[in-house]
Amino acid sequence: MSKVLIIGSGGAGLVSALSAHEKGAEVIVASKTLPTRSQTSMAQGGMNAVLSSDDAIENHIEDTLRSSAGLGDESQITFMCERAPEAIRWCNTIGLPFSRDDGGEIARRRLGGASAPRACYAQDYTGLKLLHTLYDQCLKAGIEFKNGRFLLNLIVDHETNRVLGGTFLDIETGDVEEIRADTVILATGGYGALYGKHSTNSVQATGDGLAAAVRAGAKLADMEFIQFHPTALKGSSILISESARGAGGYLLNAENERFTDELAPRDIVARAIHDEIDKGGTVYLDIRHLGEAFINHTLPQERKLTQLYEGIDPVHELIPIKPAAHYSMGGIEVNADCMSSVNGLFAVGECANHKTHGANRLGGNSLLELVVFGRHGGAKAAEYGTKNPIPSSDNPQLAKDTNFVRGVMYFTNQIDFYQKQEMLANIFYNNVGLVRDDMGLKAVLGAIRQMQKELPFMGPRDKSKVCNTNLVEFIEFGNKVELAEIIVVSAISRVESRGAHYRLDAPVRNDRMFGAHTITWKEDGVLCADFIQ
Amino acid sequence: MEIVILRGEESQVYNVEIENITLLSVLNHIKTKIDPSLTYSHGCRSGVCGSCAVRVNGREQLMCEYKPSDGDVIEPIRNARVIRDLVVDTSSIEYFNLRASAWSEGSREGCVSEEEASRIETQTDCILCGSCYSACPVYAVNPEFIGPFALTRVWRYVNDVREEKSDGKMATVQTNGIWDCTLCGACVPVCPQGIAPMQDIRMLRTKSAMLGYPDPTMNFGGGFDLGGWDF
């Protein structure tokens, strides 16, 4: 029986846990939070699948490919779309309470970029209800959870390029521990929290798994592609689901006029909004004409949050919005079996780049991806571990990381990292956001390099060993800085515009030069980048 | 504005000059600008991750959905071991859901009417924030009480028309379960999602009676057992 360590307990982590367990593996899920507190809880719109003859799987494939702007892999997309109906059935079998249509079938709605209504949903709580259903199933299966474990590093035997486990900070006790396993699945989510208050994401989406992966020698792919959701609340970046537009909501500019096709793919709508805001105006989402009853039934969260954060009731008033960082298309480079360039290290969900979203993700495809590839990756990891059990070998990683956690307490604290973190978020939103150019990107790179040098002069000011969230947030900041450099170098290298990556100084797509994936990795601590088909 | 936060045995007063923002934003301001040692849990800031439940002036609130006023007193939620400041041990969530077998035993395919689907709509909105658990007075006398969130979850599966084998769940909630609730209703107003665990427990009691389980609250101290008569 192989032992599979899953790091991260959102949708992708829990699906892969169930899948590896079904294959007979011993499964441990280690995660920095309680499973039901992960980013997946925030997904609202739905999960795409073709369920009836009025739509066709070919159309789902075609829509996804088109939106991916040349960076989607047709075989991976086909794999995902063909398994979508089965994924929905599986979710239903484990109890996900889908909303239903008049005929009693699983209800579907149309999201942006889709040629038919095919997002299956559970009110505007699709992610929440999926996540809790999965958690319940994991308890039923007897999956072992280690909550409150913050990933520090992966343990790798560099001679054989083989992962052996991971090291973790036990947040409650402050101790550093290692968990060894035959295979490791990273399911740690995206890096949207880098954009701070300009992101719809949970504050937990700090990309810890990606940073650990790149330190372990894994390759990342297409890190410059970050999706901006067109409609976040202007003041707080709280997400207003795309289903508000799917149901007929309008976008209005400062002159109260519609200015774009509300249901175009997200990159196009977000840039149209950005251009209106750039002209100096406020942009609004108008759902008043949908009526109070409809809003209460279909968009209850949106109404509540808009009232709370903007002091506005969308039943009667316009909602001021802005685009905000929402989804990380970039991620750990994985093969068709979800395995990274490090042997035995798998990645699933948002932290991975399954090449299904390419340069721009379609709404409703991320929950689908985490179910399809979570199942696939979990099974493959269990299988790989059975065939290739890890040798018991000495490894210095635990000692190194124990020393690091002890040593970081002595960092000098002349510079406040919270202030730097806010600055990083602001310059990222302004210069590595919806619209980019060489000069702006290079200025950000300069600021990041400076921050890297300054890290030893920052550090946690709280010296408690027990439950030190100041320490955790400092290490998260370190991970953000690690990824920030990679994102910006990728964005500088890609001198063209494609999907979510829009260069003002190179506004045209250039397939001849850049019709390839931006692959990044570190060699002896030095960042390398290349374009690879 | 003065905010009082219970930190271990002591209370600490923070003075913040910001108005009309959520309590979570106030705490983020304190942590990043004033006192980095202040410790609390948070995540989505939009009321779905269930991380940030605390007590404000003795009542459970999600920090991301509550706007504080001058003099508010913030404490960790109750019935859970405090780890530090406002962070509590959450292991009871796994423990009680496990004890209650709060999961699907297999859900059938096929049509479900909108009306049937809507029966479990509210219960499946649960975010496991622990507010109901904190407000429940039964834990003072019975720490093994399966409790409001886990019993709501059981009712959610029992009442799901797709569930094929849910009757077996009724056995797991007979002891330390539905009959230990005092129906005081303290769990109802504190739920940020508008769930009424007490109502769900009542429904479980009715279902339990229908399946032939005895109702221990209907025990008349001896009943017809003649040995109980004392002449």
Beta-strand content estimate of chain B? 5-15%
Low-confidence blocks of residues of chain A: none
Look up the CATH topology of the largest domain in chain B: Fumarate Reductase Iron-sulfur Protein, Chain B, domain 2
C-alpha end-to-end distance of chain A: 37 Å
| Beta-strand segment tally of chain A | 20
CATH superfamily of the largest domain in chain B: Alpha-helical ferredoxin
Radius of gyration of chain B: 21 Å
CATH top level class name of the domain at 409-506 in chain A: Mainly Alpha
CATH topology of the domain at 409-506 in chain A: Methane Monooxygenase Hydroxylase, Chain G, domain 1
| Tally of separate helices of chain B | 8
Shape of chain A: globular
Oligomeric grouping of the chains: heterodimer
SS-derived structural category of chain B: alpha+beta
Helix fraction of chain A, binned, reads 25-40%
Helix segment tally of chain A: 15
Shape of chain B: elongated
CATH architecture of the domain at 409-506 in chain A: Up-down Bundle
Tell me what the structure shows.
- The complex is a heterodimer of chains A (533) and B (231).
- Among the domains of chain A are: 93 residues, Alpha-Beta Complex (Flavocytochrome C3, Chain A, domain 1); 98 residues, Fumarate reductase/succinate dehydrogenase flavoprotein-like, C-terminal domain (Methane Monooxygenase Hydroxylase, Chain G, domain 1, Up-down Bundle), CATH 1.20.58.100.
- Chain A is built from 15 helices and 20 strands.
- In chain A, strand 7 and strand 8 form a beta hairpin.
- In chain A, helix 1 runs parallel beside helix 4 and helix 2 crosses helix 3.
- Chain A is globular and about 65 Å long.
- The mean pLDDT of chain A is 96.
- With 231 residues, chain B is an alpha+beta fold.
- Chain B has two domains: 87 residues, Ubiquitin-like (UB roll) (Roll), CATH 3.10.20; 127 residues, Fumarate Reductase Iron-sulfur Protein, Chain B, domain 2, CATH 1.10.1060.10.
- In chain B, strands 2-1-5-3-4 form a five-stranded mixed β-sheet.
- The longest helix of chain B has 14 residues.
- Chains A and B meet through helix 3, helix 4, helix 9 and helix 12 of A and helix 1, helix 2 and helix 3 of B.
